[in-house]
Amino acid sequence: MSSPNDESEALEFPLPDGQTTLLCVIQQLLGFDRARVFCSDGKVRLCRIPGKFKKRMWMKVGDVVLVAPWDFQPERGDIIYRYTSNELQKLEKKGLLKELKELLG
């Protein structure tokens, strides 16, 4: 039986839902708050890094991020979250990183 603490730990960070958000890996930082990312649906997108992340959280090549593709221009999107190493371990346990690893290599 799970305790309430287990459920709150699982909800500490946002998870991809496959429709409005996707797991992606940063391939290249392009400057001017832009990055090229490889997404779990097999597409490469040009994504914007919002100012709130640009100032507080450094992005680097190889980081796993959560991306929200734009409705009107699906080949672009916004980076809405960067996962830490602890969060990546939790995603690995849930099996969410398998498809991304298969696509990458």
UniProtKB/TrEMBL annotation:
Protein family per UniProt: Belongs to the eIF-1A family.
PROSITE patterns, A to Z: IF1A, S1_IF1_TYPE
GO molecular function: RNA binding; translation initiation factor activity
A Pfam family annotated for this UniProt entry: eIF-1a
Protein's UniProt keywords contain Protein biosynthesis: yes
Protein task: Seems to be required for maximal rate of protein biosynthesis. Enhances ribosome dissociation into subunits and stabilizes the binding of the initiator Met-tRNA(I) to 40 S ribosomal subunits.
Coiled-coil ranges from the UniProt annotation: none
Domain named S1-like: residues: 25-84
Organism: Thermofilum pendens (strain DSM 2475 / Hrk 5)
The organism's place on the tree of life at top rank: Archaea
Protein keywords: Initiation factor, Protein biosynthesis
Name this polypeptide is given: Translation initiation factor 1A
